[in-house]
Specification:
Number of domains: 2
CATH topology of the largest domain: Rossmann fold
Order of helices and strands: EHEHEEEEHEEHEEHEHEHEEHHH
Number of strands: 14
Number of helices: 10
Strand order of the largest sheet: 3-2-1-6-7-8-9
CATH superfamily of the largest domain: Glycogen Phosphorylase B
Helix content: 25-40%
Shape: elongated
Oligomer: single chain
CATH architecture of the largest domain: 3-Layer(aba) Sandwich
Largest sheet: 7 strands, parallel
Distance between the termini: 16 Å
CATH class of the largest domain: Alpha Beta
């Protein structure tokens, strides 16, 4: 049986790119491949030294697809060792064969370097443009690690990789949005939700909220809520009940949350970054330039005021939502993932 090893950052609540990685792995497992999830030591919680403990520490219920059947391997159990150069080194514990495939996220150049001499096939799973270059030495590309195949989740990332590594064989498979979990409610609440990846992005949104409050002091019944520390179901429920979702992430490759909001008929109001420009347009959200905090606050104030006066044309956006989401179907994701790895193993 063909074996695929996915290197994965450890997260007790896998979301975003980690969730996409695990979804791809799950698709391949149900498609007949032997799939293993390898966790990198720096991301392990102290004392997490057994496969069973790793599985217990991951909140698998947070995901909306089955991953219990995947094989979880805690690196550091004899599979990897650290040499004096503080570099992860492959040893015999993994028992790699030339027919095996290693799938390495774009932000793990140390793993790429350590796997260079393994002799097996390697694929970079590139989900964000922002993690690609910082970890590489000047003048170094992935081909220097014996890597020639790249799987991305969007055209923008494909173009970015091709621009700086034209020698790569790059394919695109878009992830899917679960329309069963993310669906519109019968009635929206006076709720505006947002997510933040770091302090800078939260600062932007908090500034936009202040502008909103100054522009619309009569709309103090609208509640702003940061979405964090929630189960997957709770997260989906909050997005579903929101009238608007505010977005300022300019690091993500192809951000999932605005698409999940669209599936709930929750209007995204956000900054159009390099990543979100993959799908952002005038028909599926209200977008300002990346970094335009004042513009974000002003646009949010305007649109919520129109919404409260029943002057907001939601139907126009709903059509745009469906046209956008048509590119993120579960059937297309499954077919694309299976077809890609079938081709990798045939090569």
């Amino acid at each position: 049986m063909h074996r695929i090893y996915f290197f994965c950052p450890f997260s007790p609540q896998p979301s975003g790119g980690i969730a996409v990685l695990l979804k791809f792995a799950s698709i391949l497992r149900t498609g007949g491949y032997s799939v293993h999830i390898l966790y990198n030591p720096p991301f392990l919680n102290p004392g997490a030294t057994t496969d069973e403990k790793i599985v217990r520490e991951i909140n698998l219920e947070w995901l909306d697809f089955p991953v219990n059947h995947l094989n979880y391997v805690a690196l550091g159990r004899g599979t990897y060792r650290t040499d004096k150069g503080n570099r992860l080194t492959l040893i015999e514990g993994l028992s790699l064969e030339k027919s095996d495939v290693l799938v390495i996220p774009e932000g793990m150049p140390d793993v790429m370097r350590s796997a260079a001499a393994s002799g097996c096939k390697k694929v970079v799973l590139a989900q964000s443009w922002s993690y690609i270059l910082p970890g590489l030495a000047d003048g170094v590309t992935w081909s220097g690690f014996g890597i020639h195949n790249v799987l991305t989740v969007g055209e923008n990332i494909r173009r970015f990789v091709h621009r700086f590594m034209p020698e790569m064989d790059i394919s695109v498979v878009r992830y899917s949005i679960d329309r069963r979990l993310f669906s519109p409610p019968s009635k929206k609440q006076k709720l505006i939700t947002y997510t933040c990846r770091d302090g800078c992005m939260e600062f932007r949104i908090l500034q936009a909220i202040k502008i909103f409050r100054l522009r619309n002091p009569h709309l103090n019944q609208y509640v702003f809520q940061k979405l964090e520390g929630l189960t997957r179901q709770q997260f989906a429920m909050k997005i579903r009940n929101s009238a608007f979702y505010v977005f300022s992430d300019d690091i993500s490759g192809v951000p999932t949350a605005p698409l999940e909001a669209m599936a709930c008929k929750t209007v995204p109001v956000g900054m159009c970054s390099y990543g979100s420009s993959e799908y952002a347009n005038e028909y599926n959200g209200l977008w300002v330039d990346s970094g335009d905090v004042v513009g974000l606050g002003e646009e949010l104030a305007r649109v919520v005021n129109e919404y409260e006066k029943n002057e907001f044309d939601l139907k126009r956006f709903e059509r745009g939502f469906e046209e956008t989401l048509d590119c993120y179907k579960e059937s297309s994701e499954k077919e694309g993932v299976i077809a890609y790895f079938d081709r990798i193993f045939r090569a």
